[in-house]
Amino acid sequence: MDLTPTAWQLWMVAALVCGALEIKLSGFVMLWFALGALASSLAASLGLGINFQLFLFTAVSAVLFGASRTIFKNVFMRTASHLKTGIEAMLGQEAVVVEAIGEPHGGTVRINGELWMARSLSGGVPEGERVTVEQVEGLKLWVRRPSASLSVPVVEQKKKERG
């Protein structure tokens, strides 16, 4: 009885070792080598030469490794929403005016428990009023009163009273 392992058995052992390492390690790297070894094991069982087996192992592993980000993004992350953090998360949020916002120097607003220097895009804003963050420029927020609290110009108000 001949106990010499054949090529397909060696590739299968390599696939199992890479699979075990994938379970032990984090990062989805060894998985692609395991699949490449499985493909080479199949090629060896079909009687293809060692050069083709090595080429197939390299090609399958490299293609899967290169495409892994796209594969995981399309399969596992298709329903995930983009998580906004930092400055990006502040845009569109409401802040409370802590120090009245005047024209020349601005004022201070509280957002997410932090105090920020602010400038108004819609004129002066008194203390205690809520504003919406429109833009962030360095360490200064550009804010605007919500549309519901915008004052109606005197000209439009007189037209409504007449007609």
UniProtKB/TrEMBL annotation:
Its main location: membrane. The chain crosses the membrane at residues 54-72. Keywords: Membrane, Transmembrane, Transmembrane helix. Residues 88-145 form the NfeD-like C-terminal domain. It is a multi-pass membrane protein. It holds the Pfam family NfeD. It is found in: Membrane. Signal peptide: none annotated. The keyword Transmembrane helix applies. Gene3D superfamilies: Nucleic acid-binding proteins (2.40.50.140). PANTHER family: INNER MEMBRANE PROTEIN YBBJ. This is NfeD family protein. It comes from Pyxidicoccus parkwayensis.
